[in-house]
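Database export, one record per block. Field names are fixed; values are copied verbatim from the stored entry.
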Amino acid sequence: MAGQMRLRAGRLDNTLCESYRISSERDRRSKHMCIASGGVIIEKRGHKADVDFGGNIVEAEAGLTQCEVGDRVLVHAGCIIQKLTETEAEEMDEILRLMEEL
């Protein structure tokens, strides 16, 4: 991404989910699309889970779906929104790999 951007955690609709806003003035005026990312749950504590995104470990809200350690999941705005099948996870990995090659 071009330019300097800072990410800030916040609250979204009284949930414990994290939302991120880009603080760059130029980026506030432009349109953005946010995508969900796939990762693997490596630890779960109640409604919180540590999710591994290729070596980047992020804490996510896990109370919206039924998921356990080892599950491949889709995370959006700090919340696990879907448990992925192995086929879905592999397809997503392939799409992201192809996008990196562009």
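Remark 1: The chain has one domain: 7-101.
Remark 2: The two ends are 15 Å apart (CA to CA).
End of record.
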